[in-house]
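Schema walkthrough. Field components (list of strings):
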Amino acid sequence: MTSVAPAALDLEGIRAQFPILTRRVSGVPLAYLDNGATAQVPQVVLDRMTAHYAAEHANVHRGVHTLSHEATVAYDGARAVAARFLNAPRPADVVFAHGTTSGLNLLARAWGDANVKAGDEIVLTTLEHHSNIVPWVRLAERTGAVIKVATLLPDGSLDLPAFERLLSSKTKVVAAAHASNVLGTVLPIRRMTELAHAVGAILVVDGAQAAPHTAVDVQALDCDFYVASGHKLYGPNGIGLLYGKTALLAAMPPYEGGGGMIERVEFERITYATPPARFEAGTPPVAEAIGLAAALEWLMTLDRGAVEAHEQDLLAHATERLEAIPGVRVHGTAQGKVSVLSFTVEGIHPHDVGTVLDRQGVAVRAGHHCAQPLMRHLGVPATTRASFGVFNTRAEAERLAEGVLAARKVFA
Amino acid sequence: MSELQELYQSLILDHNRSPRNFGTLEGADRHAEGYNPLCGDQVALDLKLDGDRIADIKFSGNGCAISKASASLMTTAVKGKTLAEAEVLFTGFHGMVTGSAPPADPKATLGKLAIFAGVAEFPVRVKCATLAWHALHDAMK
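Field assembly_structure (string):
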């Protein structure tokens, strides 16, 4: 989240690549501001997946025929693209999971069960999404480990000294979001990694909300695992990325068992494949992996600094416009946050705000955003959230503010 | 904005602002809770029965305008009714807002509750309107 001077971004050209942006909702052009939940998909991804199904569709890693070979080449190629996207040292350091949730569950099961014992401590933060809470709490329940929660400062940033005080030789794993799906806060992952490593713990990063907004470099972060979702990266559903350090993946037992993840199977004894195959039991989501790679390549052809500057401009503009509306409170004001904007309007429930916005073609998320502990921390039952992506415009940020004004009129 | 006005009619806005029968009942005979895990809306109901008649009813919790107004209007509609009469209202209301069995003349069968007919045009808000009713349904079992 470095500050970059706004560079030219061909916004019209980018928008033209997203067929869904021609849709009308409630009789007006769609203003899609729910990228934090699912981003839209550019035509190049649809084309690549169609081409796969039309010309090279077959199972991977097991056929002798031409299509199977072509599908395998495309699938392995997708892994190489994913590794480049995350700056992972080797393609084999990236496992295709089904999404961030499945990646985190894999880690809590496979790494957690092998490494966490009764009395050990698992450190999370207040702003985590349920998918980075539930698997770890379940691990604690299975093993007798203890959950510790790092708290936030009033602006929604991490209380780093308090986090440091939570760590001890008992800490086995720290699991933290790179960016909050509610507040937009970016956590100081690099520093947290240093602190975790200093006490012998590993750091697991939920990158679902950060990876779409900022260039990720897992080697610079020095994190042990990094997980992200394809559908938030302008790619298809049902596919996600799980990066792990080579040695950690090599030492980790399997999660699911089945075809593709074994070396040799006897009823008495099974030996397992090396990573990443060890963690990809069954036929993988081949078309989705190929589609995701197309999305990542598309994203990497853009000037990521310029994309970030554009999204930051939208965030700043929308924040300024919303804060000028009486009764509106923006939740999460940390420096360097990603373009996720949660707010509440005094006297109007977020669902009602969401419905009024929807009737003006503005798509936002309203609810607890799968972050109930954070909602309790904020003292609100829910928020309305706008999340901006590469294709959004200032005019759409404007429509958000106008929609909130309209909601105030309905409830005046 | 016409569908919005249909949804957020003044009676609904009024019950949202000043919910009737809001609170809890000491020594309630029946208690039930409704929770929508998707959005976090919650409602708790307390009922006092006089035989098979709902002598008193109160609700608490938090939610959107639709769920709060629905709970509020529901309490005014079922207070004094027998459990069987309340069950008939539940069925009629449910059929109306889900659109699965819209009553021919909602005003005749549902009275003031007919104001929620517009919810059928907002599929994602049906659960808001039915949250308190499902809790009542549970409480009457």
